[in-house]
Specification:
about 375 residues; alpha/beta
Length: about 375
């Protein structure tokens, strides 16, 4: 692989690189992760969101590993085969960033390109804000960067009140988030009632007709839960265009083993996350290259036609925004298109380098 430029246009092998599954342990944590590509290649770290595991990035791992990148996708704490502490406060972003700092050091500690989706975008932004020396660039999908942290206090003031009048939808599309803070045990029990149906019902492709309409997430409290009075997901077949069947089985087994409690606890640490965000240098302003990929049909997290992207635009000195015709599950809905979008951005920002090189940290 030496002498080949990662992210270049050279022919890639027809056979996808293999994936390896490993677990990294320290005294404070255990992180399971998926790995692919040459160990001496430039590092790219993929961070999933809720409710996912590192394997959701299979298509991107295989594509960038074939380009010469050393690709790693951890199961974040509380997800998959990684450790799941008992206390809700153990899922504050500070703890997740500490996990990733230890893993990154184990992987060599050289500046990486961090790629996030959903909560993974929140974590990638926090890594860039608190430890910019660990980053060459950051790719955020389906969730904008908020320098003041991701929290109800940050999100609710940005709600589009033309869709969500305050008297009827005080928290807008974020009512489901509020529900975790007010009815945590009941919310988790509904999700745990049938993990396979829960996950299949959540992972649906985007619908352009949903734009401008009230999202189901805005009425969770009013409905008595995500699934209403039934308190369990309706029978739903998984969509193989999003998750390959074998990977979806791994996802279901993970949530059957862990339950949804640990992953839902991520929503319960607003105060701690705000305090942590305010410790970042320069108010969390990012000077390194940032790519944000918006889902055109993402009724909850789109930054088009509203103010949700304004904090990111103010806080990122080198921001590239683009979009793909997808809903919230953009990395699964538009697998190859996302790869090509990131490749184009990497070339434009000169973030690729020769495999085997070890550039100065913070370059």
């Amino acid at each position: 692989m030496h002498g080949r430029r990662a992210g270049g246009s050279e022919p890639r092998p027809a056979r996808a690189p293999s994936l390896s599954f490993r677990t990294f342990r320290t005294a404070r944590q255990a992180t399971h992760y998926v790995e692919s590509g040459p160990a001496d290649g430039p590092l790219m770290i993929f961070l999933h969101g809720w409710p996912a595991i590192g394997l959701m990035w299979r298509a991107q791992l295989e594509a960038f590993a074939a380009d010469g990148w050393h690709c790693v996708a951890p199961d974040l704490r509380g997800f998959g085969a990684s450790a799941a502490p008992a206390a809700n406060e153990d899922y504050a972003i500070r703890e997740v960033v500490a996990d990733l700092g230890e893993l990154h050091d184990q992987l060599g500690g050289g500046p990486a390109v961090w790629v996030g989706h959903d909560w993974g975008s929140i974590v990638a932004g926090a890594v860039a804000a608190h430890a910019p020396e660990r980053c060459r660039g950051v790719v955020l999908t389906s969730w904008a960067y908020f320098p003041d942290s991701n929290s109800l206090a940050t999100l609710v003031p940005l709600v589009d009140r033309t869709i969500y009048p305050a008297d009827r939808y005080p928290d807008g599309q974020w009512d489901y988030y509020r529900h975790y803070t007010t009815h945590f045990d009941a919310a988790v029990a509904d999700l745990d009632a049938d993990p396979a149906a829960t996950l299949a019902s959540i992972y649906r492709p985007g619908d352009p007709d949903a734009l401008g309409q009230v999202a189901p997430t805005a009425t969770v409290t009013r409905d008595g839960g995500r699934f209403g009075g039934e308190h369990h997901a309706p029978p739903t077949a998984a969509d193989p265009a999003l998750w390959p069947a074998e990977d979806f089985d791994v996802l279901v087994r993970a949530f059957k083993a862990q339950g949804f409690g640990p992953s839902c606890a991520w929503y319960t640490n607003d105060a701690a996350n705000i305090a942590y965000a305010r410790e970042a240098p320069d108010g969390g302003r990012l000077t390194l290259p940032v790519l944000f990929v918006n889902g055109d049909w993402d009724a909850i997290c789109t930054v088009t036609g509203n103010h949700q992207g304004d904090p990111m635009r103010s806080a990122c000195a080198d921001l590239t925004e683009t979009s793909l015709p997808a809903g919230h599950w953009l990395p699964l809905e538009r697998k190859e298109e996302l790869v090509q979008t990131v490749r184009t951005w990497l070339r434009g920002k000169d973030l690729q380098f020769v495999a085997g090189e070890r550039p100065d940290r913070g370059r």
